[in-house]
Amino acid sequence: MRQPSTLVLYAGFLVVGILIGAGFVAFPTNRSVHADNLDGANSERVYRELSTEGSSLQDGSMLLAKVATVTTPSVVHIQSERKVQGRKEEETGSGVILTSSKASGYFVVTNGHVIDKTPLDSISIHLYDGRVLQPERVWTDEASDIAVLKIDGPNLTAAKWGDSRKVDIGHMVLAMGSPFGLSRSVTFGIISARSRRQLKLGKSEVINQDFLQTDAAINPGNSGGPLVDLQGRVIGINTAIASSSGGNEGIGFSIPSHLAQRVMDQLLEFGVVPRAYIGVKLDDNFDSKVATKLKLDRLHGARVNDVYPNSPAARAGLQYDDVVLNFDGTDVQDHDHLINLVSLSPIGKQIRMTVWRAQKKIPLSIVLADRSVAMPRNTEPSSKPGTGSNIRPMGLIIHPLDGDLAEQLGYQRSAKGLLVLRVEGGSPLKSDVQVYDVIEAVGRTPVTTLDELNQALEASAHSESVILKIQRTAQREGHNQLVVWHK
Fold this sequence. Notes:
Elements: H1 3-21, H2 40-53, H3 55-71, E1 75-84, E2 87-100, E3 103-111, E4 123-126, E5 132-133, E6 137-141, E7 146-151, E8 160-161, E9 172-177, E10 185-196, E11 211-214, E12 226-228, E13 233-241, E14 252-256, H4 257-270, E15 276-277, E16 280-282, H5 288-293, E17 302-307, H6 312-316, E18 323-327, E19 330-331, H7 335-343, E20 350-357, E21 360-367, E22 369-370, H8 371-374, E23 389-391, E24 396-400, H9 403-408, E25 418-423, E26 438-442, E27 445-446, H10 450-459, E28 465-472, E29 479-486
Parallel strand pairs: 8-13
Antiparallel strand pairs: 1-2, 1-4, 2-3, 3-7, 4-5, 6-7, 9-10, 9-12, 10-11, 11-14, 12-13, 13-14, 15-22, 16-17, 17-18, 18-19, 18-20, 20-21, 23-24, 24-25, 25-26, 26-27, 26-28, 28-29
């Protein structure tokens, strides 16, 4: 029965500690107060002391109340109803009314997943004063999970954007919204981390991940609501929670305002969010073992697995196994960080980069292209149809073997594998692999398609040596052999 008292005591110390850190508290009295000694007169004395000497605590509390009061009229509750595979599906979330320099009027910013694929007449926006509006138009950006809804009505109140780049770990924040459908809810906490990436957010493919982490309680229904600082400015859009139970466990994530505001402005100006592109495939399994192999002093940067032909990266001279350490003056932490930096940079801008190559830092200059125009239709760097695909780590041009090709080259029609069309001059396999050889397996994994080969190469990315099973025709000293590929 002592646990609740312990929790209450801990919570009390936590609040007082936070307020002390903010400069709100100076202990007003050193007179001890014991509940056992309180009678009517003593109680009146304590109440008088609290009303005068507790002003610092009250000032802190009043500040939080003012922030909530000034922001609440701009916070909305959103309900959407859509059909998914013939079934009716309801979604609830939150949003915040804001304005933009790119268009006149009022707009609700929320998460894209809150109103995903929902018709306009099936979206209702509930204001703090009880009014219900329907959006006149909706813009969405899947890559950031941001949606913007245009609304119109009298006496609308917009919140103000803050700058999330000026927020540090430890800064106090309020999370606002409608958790579990309970509108006008406010929770209090701090920024507990910055630049959280590589989050798994349901089925969505969120490219731009640079989340603020907070311990302010965020629960289902808070999605799309604002995270505000102690000046009442929006510094984030609440998006997700880390939870094993489905409820708040002290770790929530918000899209930072510098990203959310940019996405909103570009949606309103262009209808889409233009994103820059350099044309590389990055290693999402880059770890300390590979970093040590490349003679890096520590794990950082983004390792290049491949460079697409005719891309900005190819023109800039980026190569396989380069590690991008710095992009436009910003040190690159990992591959997600580089993706975020590139996609949010202006298209056409010339960028200075630093890459790690052959144990040296190499400066490069690259001009960014438009992702929607330059992004290849598939993930395989290929030349013209029928001329094979360049597998750069192996230095081979290959093509899937089919029955017709097999017979023409002297193989059994049932032969399976990848046909070698060319061995590049710098290939690490040039002394062991010949044109018209067929790669049947990587390690012990059979490969018959480019996808299977890529999967096998990724699975062996951390190995310094890989076994290849090669078949050669009878006309050319035919036999099966094993080749050791020393990377």
